[in-house]
Amino acid sequence: MGDFMPExxxxxxxxxxxxxxLAEKARGFTSPNPMVGAVIVKDGRVIGEGYHQRCGEGxxxxxAFNNATEDVAGATIYVTLEPCSHTGKTPPCADKIIEKKIAxxxxxxxxxxxxxxxxxxxxxxxxxIDISYGLLAEESARLNExxxxxxxxxxxxxxxxxxxxxxxxxxxxxxESRWITCEKSREKVHLLRxxxxxxxxxxxxxxxxxxxxxxRAEGLxxxxxxxxxxxxxxxxxxxxxxxxxxxxxxVATLQSDSxxxxxxxxxxxxxxxxVVETEGRVDLDCLMEKLGEMGIDSVLxxxxxxxxxxxxxxxxxxxxxFYIAPQIFGGVGAKTSVxxxxxxxxxxxxxxxxxxxxxxxxxxxxxxxxxxQ
Length: 373
Known about the structure:
Layout: H1 10-24, E1 37-42, E2 45-51, H2 60-67, E3 76-81, H3 93-99, E4 104-109, H4 119-126, E5 130-133, H5 137-143, H6 145-153, E6 157-165, H7 183-195, E7 198-202, H8 203-209, E8 224-228, H9 239-242, E9 249-253, H10 260-267, E10 271-274, E11 277-278, E12 281-282, H11 284-293, E13 298-301, H12 305-313, E14 319-325, E15 352-360, E16 363-370
Parallel strand pairs: 3-4, 4-5, 6-13, 6-14, 7-8, 7-13, 8-9, 9-10
Antiparallel strand pairs: 1-2, 1-3, 11-12, 14-16, 15-16
Helix pairs in contact: 3-4
């Protein structure tokens, strides 16, 4: 397929960047589908734009065609992800492109699913249409990092988020933790909850804080709440259980889902998932498999240091986001982001790559990816 990767012009880059901007508009609304944008250009003019707005609704290419201000025959269409070649909830976009007599197709990233990848491109090429791919492919893949993992592995993309002081504390020695970071940082965390389909904490966080774990920003969707609770200690009167009829709530445990406590929780709307154990705790890798089967394509871990260490040790985390506030708490007994037993050797510790930092008011937000090499 190397013959589909020619040199691209300055205008090609400009139009594909616009398509990526369109795709970004749907962040948090398309799961488990990818975010895709499309731009139609004819005689040097943009005559149609579109993006995949919600799962089950029209794909980017279809919306761009529907929004076109004139006949698209002979035009060029820029699409951030390979047009689909199979019938799902909507017909194949590759067929729609052929039907509309598009003259040229420029694609960003290929479909990551090895069973599908390249088929949309082949179908369009076989129809005699000029097609190329690979333009801003890395940007398109990064935009869809959740989809790129889930469609291949059927396991959720996992983000660990922490809000700490400059000396790494998540609470004072007395346990006070509200608020470490600024309001703008906290707003960004609620956007994260909207972007990802699940949020996970350990039961000790539930016992200590009685959180809601929903998205409190208007018009945004709340994630499924997931509690790791080996012994089913979660109180039936806690906020998560009491609101399980409103927000999807999952408790992962080592106990039988037919136990008295499990039956009580299920009657209140909680989904109880029994998972195998690792070192006396819920096996998090097994839990990720089960969550993937339940349609959860991404998970935000906001739990305490014990759950965080277990998640790092079991290698389920893909990405980390640290909000660091310009404060010093001190205290040998003050809680830190990642606790547990720790790694004994530097060679065994978690390595990060693609590290970036940005200011959020006076806080610093550091984003990085786990290096599995």
